[in-house]
Amino acid sequence: MRVGVIFGGRSVEHVVSVRSARTVADGLKQAGHEVVPLGIAENGAWVGPEDAARTIAGVAKALPVPSGDARASLSHLLAARLDAAFPIVHGTYGEDGCLQGLLEMLDLPYVGCGVAASAVAMDKLLSKRLFERAGLPVVPYAVVTRAAFDANPAGALGACDALGSPWFVKPSVGGSSVGCRLVKERAHLIDAVRFALQFDDTILVEQGVKAREVEVAVLGRAGAMAASVIGEIVPGGEFYDYEDKYLKDDAKLIAPAQLPDEVASELKHNAVRAMDAIGGAGMARVDFFYLEGERRLALNEINTLPGFTTISMYPR
Known about the structure:
The chain has helices at residues 14-30, 49-56, 75-78, 98-105, 115-122, 124-133, 146-151, 153-156, 189-196, 242-247, 261-277; strands at 2-8, 34-40, 46-47, 84-87, 141-145, 167-171, 181-183, 202-207, 212-221, 224-234, 252-254, 282-291, 296-303. The chain is an alpha+beta fold.
């Protein structure tokens, strides 16, 4: 099969996507497929197979940025004569349903969740509301919007006090922990929210829980979704941030995690329920907190195009 590996993109996760594409391309080749690398540069222009292949090979850290009309560069995708596409564009314009919508319009089969599920999963607030509606436990949280914060910063943070410290601040839309901060003192909360607002107009402030971070990979069609063994992340720092995920080698990735059988069974069951809650199919990584002292689980988020770097959890 002639498979296009689409990677790069306009988001802050561009370099991560390049690293994921290398792993995916190698796996496809080992499985006997013909790989056609297609990149999306940081300005949104499509990059042809030759330049994309050089980037995957490690000649360049990021895709070259072509000059000219970015819209005209879509010809690279149209001329590729693909049987299927494997989009591995993390973040905005790649993981959020935009790229999936383009592939749908071209009637080109692709790996991963569809348009609606991708869009919902990318928005942490929307997905949390769906998880709650489905009866899945989530960490208590408050919502801060840019409009409310700009009008009255102190008042916009009022609901956060009920959560108690510490707080975990994150943009509602984003990935790879970009824009996230762990806040231990109330006086620093306003700066963390202001920082997160650089990445999105809606911010989640979550209760900072002391818990084990565990993850489940899911794969399959709707109604026939399989869950993997449980993986556990032991962060190198205070939380599993961007540097831990992609730059340093301090975090420990344990698979399978050492958990009671009933907890592992509940995790797998809830991972499939989470996928069902967003209407997803294909693949995803579902992230949980396990509050060991309370023997309680809380669903954190779902990632429909998880990292595929050599140190990422999903391929493990």
